[in-house]
Amino acid sequence: MSNYVGIDLGTTNSAICSYxxxxxxxxKSPEQNDVTPSAIYIDKRGNKYIGKRAYDAAPHSPGNSAxxxxxxxxxxxxxxxxxxxxTKTPEECSAEVLKTLFAYLPEEIxxxxxxGTVITVxxxxxxxxxxxxxxAANMAGLGNVAxxxxxxxxxxxxxxxxxxxxIFLIYDLGGGTLDVALAESIGGRVSLLSHGGIAxxxxxxxxxxxxxxxxxxxxxEKFDLPDDLAVNPDFKSLMxxxxxxxxxxxxxxxxxxxxxxxxxxxxxxxxxxxxxEIYVDIPLTRDxxxxxxxxxxxxxxxxxxxxxxxAGFGPHDLDRIVFVGGPTHYKPLREKVSFELGIPGNTxxxxxxxxxxGASLFAESIDWSxxxxxxxxxxxxxxxxxGLSVSFNYVSRTPDAKAKIGVQVTGEALPDSEFQVDSVDTxxxxxxxxxxxxxxxxxxxxxxxxNEFKVYVLDQSxxxxxxxxDRITITRTASTVDAIPxxxxxxxxxxxxxxxxLILEKLIQAGDSLPRKGSTIVKAAETVKAGTAGAINxxxxxxxxxxxxxxxxxxxVMRITGADFDSGVIPAGAELEVDYEVHDSGxxxxxxxxxxxxxxxxxxxxxxxxxxxxxxxxxxxxxxxDEGERILRRIDEVADVVGDPALDEARRKANLAxxxxxxxxxxxxxxxxxxxxxxxxxILAQVRQEHIATIRTLDLERxxxxxxxHVREYARPSDISAFESLVKTAQRESGIPGSDFEHHLDxxxxxxxxxxxxxxxxxxxxxxxMVEAPHLFVDKERFDxxxxxxxxxxxxDDIAKLRVVVAELSAVQVGMVSDEDMSTxxxxxxxx
Length: 832
Known about the structure:
It is built from 22 helices and 41 strands. By secondary structure, the protein is of the alpha+beta class. It folds into six domains: 178 residues, ATPase, nucleotide binding domain (Nucleotidyltransferase, domain 5); 185 residues, ATPase, nucleotide binding domain (Nucleotidyltransferase, domain 5); 98 residues, Immunoglobulin-like; 128 residues, Substrate Binding Domain Of DNAk, Chain A, domain 1 (Sandwich); 76 residues; 117 residues, no CATH class. The strands form ten sheets. It has a seven-stranded mixed beta sheet with strand order 18-17-12-13-14-29-32. Strands 1, 2, 3, 4, 10 and 11 form a six-stranded mixed beta sheet that branches. Strands 21, 23, 24, 26, 27 and 28 form a six-stranded mixed beta sheet that branches. The radius of gyration is 30 Å and the shape is globular. It starts with a strand and ends with a strand.
C-alpha cells in the first residue's frame, strides 16, 4: 500500500491530506482552500451543497442548513432541516462531509482498495462519540478506516517540522474541543506522557459568548424583540446571522485591535415586533473579547497544568508549546497561555492543517491487514536457507538516517564465512563482513519511506549461499509514536456478590498505554434459558469515579439474551470470559465467551449504545435541570460538613444546568450544561476521597434518617433489628480505609428500598412519578409502551403486574435517581 489518507473531521472546518511514504499533500476544496467548512445546505429543489457554499448560505437559510453537528455525534439529537421537513442524524451529516472530502482525492487513490484512511477524533471524545464517528465513516463508504486521537496526529506533525529532542506540550484548541498532550521526543521517537482536554471548549463557544453577552443584549435594547429571542423560531435566521457576524469580527481581531460586529438591514432581512428593520452595528475590541473568553481560557490553562501534573513535570522541564487549531491564530490567546504556563510558544506548524497532516503520517504506521488496525512491527528478520542456522535481525521502521542490522548464529557457524549488504536504491555496499555472532552494521537510509537492501552470505571460498529471503525493507518514517495513553478509564459494572454492592472493574485505566488487550472472568447472576426473553446485561461505564459508579458516563449495555443462542441454559453462577481490546484511538471491542453453552458474543452485534445512553439534547432541558439540582443538593450536603474550596467550583458547574432558562437554552447550551454536571461529579468524587471518613459519616446519617422518617413504620421487627445491627457495623468501619463500609451502606439502602417495595402504595406512587418524568428515559418508544401497560394495571388494580412494569421502567431509566433507588439492570458478579 502506498496511499495513506488523513481526515480531520472538525466542528467548524474539515480537511483531507494524503501521504505517499515521502511527501504529504493537502487536497484543496473547489475554492482552493486547505479547509472545508463542515456545513450542509439543501435548497428547495433538493440540491445538496457541502462546504463553503453551504457555510455562506447557512446564516441566511437556517431551515435549509446544518452546521456544528460534530458536537452532536454519539447523541440521539436530530439535525433538522425545518424548511424542507428533513431530519438527519449527526452521523449522516458527518458522512456527507467525509464523502465530499474523499472526492477531492484523485481517482487512483479513491478507488484503490488498499488505501487506508485515519480519521481524527478529540482525545476528549467519549466512547459513544468515537463509535458514531466510525458509523459515519461506514455510511460514507470509505473502506479501510481507523480512528486516531487528535493530539497524536498533532504530535506527528510537530515532529516532522522539528526533530529536536525534548518535551513539549500540544495545545490544540479547535472549533469545538480542547485537547492538550504532553509529549517527549528522543531521536525522533515520541511518547505521549499524558493528555487531557475539555469536551465543550472551542472557537464556537467564543462566538456564543460574544452573541450572548454583547449582541443579544444590544438587540433587545435597540429593538422590540421577545425575551426568548435566542430560541424563538421566528428569529432563528437573525440569531444564526448574529453568530456569523460575531465570528467574522472575532477573526478580524486576530490582526486588528478592534472590529465591528456588523449586519446591514439587507443582510439581516428581519423586522422586529413593531415592524422596524433590524441591523447590527456593535464595536468589539480585543479588551472586550479577552474579558468574555477569560474564564474559558483559564479552564484551558488549568487543563494544561493538570496534564503536566499527571506526568510529574513542571514548566521548566518543557521546551515549547505547539499551538494547533484555528482559535490559536489569535495572538493574545497564545501569549496568555504561554505566560500563564511559563512555557515559550511555538508556531512551527500550520494550526489549521497540522492535525490532518499528522493523521496521514500516522496512517502509514498502521498495519491495515489487521482487523484491529494495530501498528506495523518495528522489527524484521531474514533467515538462512536449509542447513544455515543464521538470521539477520534489523529495525524495520525508524525516523533515523541509519538503521542497524545484527547477526544471530543459532547453530554452528560456517568457518571463515562472510556476509554483505547492498542498497538496491543507491548502490551502497557494506563490503564483505565476517559472519560471526553479534556482529552489527549500520545501514544508511537515504530517503524517506521504504529503503531496499539485499543480503548476501558467502562461504569460505567466496561463493554465495542461497537464502530463503534475501531482501530487507527498512522504512524511514517521519517520526514514531511509541506510547499513546488512554484518555479515559473504561470499566464493567459488577455486583461484588449476589445481591451485593455495585463495583466498577476497570478494563483499562486512564493513562494506560494503548493499544491494549486483556481478559477478565465474571459470573452470571441470573439464569437465562435459550429462546427466552431473559438476558445477561453487561454494563459499561467510562470514568474514574469509584462510588457511586453511576456518576461516571454511561456507555451502554452489552446484552446476551435467550434469543441469541439456540439451545442450553446459562445458569446463575456460570463463568463468562470477557476478552477486550482497546485500540490506539481508545475504542473498545468486547467479546464474551460462555463455555457452558459453547457460544461467544461480540460487542459489534450486542452493544446497544444508542438505545441505552444517547441523549436528544433538543428535549433534554428538564433532564439537565433535574441533574443539576440533584448535584447541587449533594454539594450542599457535603459542604455542611467539609470546607473544601473545590466545592465552589463544583457548585458553579452544577448551577449552569440547574439554572437553565427555557427562553434562552438551545440544544447546544443543554449539552454544555450536562458536560459541566459531569465535571461537577468528578470534583465531588475527589472531595470524597480527600475527606472520606467525614463523608462516610454523612452518608450513614442520611440513609439512617431516611429509614426513620420514611421506612420504619412499614418495617417488620426483624427488618428493624437487621437494619440497626448493620448501622452499628457500618459505624465501626466508617473510619477504616479499605473497609467494607460502602458495601454495608449499599445493603442499608437496599433494605430501605426492599421494605418500601413490599408496599402497594409505593409501587403505585413510583409508577406515577416515573410517567410524569418522561425526560428521564431515552428509549421513548419503550417508555410509552410500559406507561400504557402500567396504566392498564392501575385500572385493573393489578399491583403484581404493575410491579413488573415498574421494574422494567427502572431498567430503561437513564436520568439520575435518588441515592435510595438501588434498582439496577446489571446482573453479572465479580469472578475469580
